[in-house]
Fold these 2 entries.
Entry 1:
Amino acid sequence: MVLDSETVRSSAACDYLGKELQCSCGRTHSVGVKRVIIESGALDDLPSVIRELGHTSAFVVADTNTYAAAGSRVESLLRKAGLADGILIYRRQGDLVPDERAIGEFFVAVHRPDVIVAVGAGVINDLAKYVGSRLSIPVIIVATAPSMDGFASDSSALILDNLKTSVEVQTVEAIVADVDVLRAAPIEMIRAGMGDMFGKYTALKDWMLGHIVTGEYYCEGVAEMVAYSVEKCIRSTSGLASRDAEAIRNLMEGLVLSGIAMSFVGNSRPASGAEHHISHYWENAFLQLNRAAVLHGTKVGIGTVVVSRIGTALASRAVDFEAARRDAVAFDAARWRSDVERLFGTAAPGIIRHSEEANRNSIDERLHRIDILEREWERIAQVLSTPPSAGQVESLMAAVGAPLRPMDIGVDNGMVEGGVMYAKEIRPRYTVLQLASDLGLLEEFARKAGSEK
């Protein structure tokens, strides 16, 4: 099988499983997921899927919400089939956080089953993949909401040492998504899934920017695969509010395809850029204030609007590269460190350590990048101008009833400004935020973003 435009547009998620795809990028792509079932009544297939994959005992993990949504039925099905081998139900007063406490509870509860069956979406999925990887136990995910794109990815988003951290893990063996269960998910989670997909627009631009400026690996076939997964979701937006079965199925398949794309590359780069980094920044800010978390995809959707505006402004900017060089030489390391400590709180030591290890504040490296930016500016401006615009993203979000402004989710102007200025410190990836920083324009854009209503 060859990964090309025709393959991308004629394939469903299950068509990529169990194959090695020769790609024009020079790499051979494959994914560890063996089964994907997205259909009404899929829960009934779970025992047979477990047996077909060669397993005879399954440990179930859920939280109180996902147990009510599907976990109770999963437990019953496995008991009747003679496959049950224990269960962990996370019980929290507030949100379940994928931190050291949650990981420790998982390690204590799990025995040595053949497989872990994770019933849930984002946090449960991340915890199960991490623990399964460390114990060399395969994982099957039973999705309870089409709320995020990490089901098929080979990374887990965890909160370690108070810092949002992406950890490489094994992919799940199978994804069982019962459309009847997904349709019953809270509408906020369905909208969050669309928000996560909208973020691919800016993530793909950032990936190309990284390729142009730093020589980072880029695959046109995988990028087209992600773009197609977004198209697949957007074609069904009109049916999401009414929980139309086909619309929900298309959203879930788009999310899975996006995760497969990440597995093909070996990281989240094709589907996560500055919009995700801003989301992570806001999440950290909420944690510092002990405020209830906002759904990841909801934050990503709003972050996509913020980032799109910056990209549009940069594309039409008459850049003064000599001024950028003067700004680079005048970098104030003490101010940077002070701001990181103030804004990231308990997560600051990790931010500073990672930055120092990667030499990310090197003036020489920044000057080198500015030389590349000046040479490649026409091409970069073209990337930044690629549709959709920020206004078009807002229209798409409005069509599904998603929040559009930071204030809609309790993010104040200070958090917006801080996110634009310092979200780039969270991941060592080149994005439009690092581009604006290299040009000495990031502070200007941060103030403007923080003052917008």
Entry 2:
Amino acid sequence: MQTNRFEQTLINKLAEIDANGALKGREKIITAIKPPENGKGPRYFIEGQGDKAFIRMNANAYLGLARDEGLVKAEEAAVRAYGTGPGAVRFISGTYQPHVELEKQLARFHNREAAMIFSSAYATIMGLLPPLIDSETAVISDALNHNCIINAMRLSRPLLKGIYAHLDMTELEARVKAAMGQAKRVLIVTDGIFSMRGDYAPLAAIADLASRYDAEFTEGVLTVVDDSHGVGAFGKTGRGTIEYTGAQGVDILVATLGKAFGVNGGYLAASAPIVAYLRETAPFYIYSNPITPGEAEAARKALDIIDSPEGQKRLEHLRTLTKRFEEGLVNLGFEVLRSEHPVVPLMIRDSARTKEIVQHLITNGILATGLNYPVVPKGDEEIRFQVSAEHTQADIDYVLDVLKGYQSD
């Protein structure tokens, strides 16, 4: 086969993606970071942008822990003790003491019997769903669930697959009822925080629904929640959407170490039998190296901080800034989807205007993400801002002033 013919096919597909408005294009490369000073948060320098400094309003670093000195020292000490990488998968010789201690600490943090870490939260979902889904399983998923859940369901071969309208508990219940008499078990899968919108699943209602119908299935109804954007950034003590909604009975919690915790990797927390089974059957766990021992130690330090007065201070600061930003946008006449979560969607509802505003922000030293069709449905075009505890009131006010300037132009 002529390689250039195959490459031309790929070039044509890229052109098609571009024509549909979904091409991500060249990545922005961060070359340096200027530390906080004079009431301003950190500033980022981008390759090709000279000495222009940017406020980063499009990162998942909700608590601003990635450059925390305590985390840096913890990781550095572990690297010196264990080296830069594990050198093997877990079941061969890639399990180090920091991995084990982190899993114990995560289980305690979430009040679960056990936890297990993966290379990422994406790998966690991809690793756990297929082993729990067989030809007698019904899987029911929220329509706006993350891409990892969608792809994990595609990898699986359930008896029934159902999608319910976003947050629609009536349709979810109907899907569960439809599986009665057919499936032995039901898996209800949902995001905790929906990353595009910053809204959250009514986990208490979902868990209650699962409990009410559990006896109708031979192997029960299980709930799986991916709260990667919630844990560390949402809830009174940062324990995420389960804490915020007061839900009881969520069977498997999935989250990440790479967002609010400021490190890398993903994990799940569940009962001891579920974790023991997944250690033997989850391919993304069995056949992939774990995070490094250094990352595990940094994550342990992040947990210590979150579960301390300093963590509470960061969370309160984050909530204060989020509220200030939302109120400022509303006062400027913009439409926002309001919640206590630091994802703040500015609803533009027009692709051309979304691109125009994003460019205006970049010109004025602000990094923000525009989401256009087909990434989001037509009419739901938005700019997704993400607030961080590293931001200051001056940062938030500057972004609001830039947006006010756009309206004046």
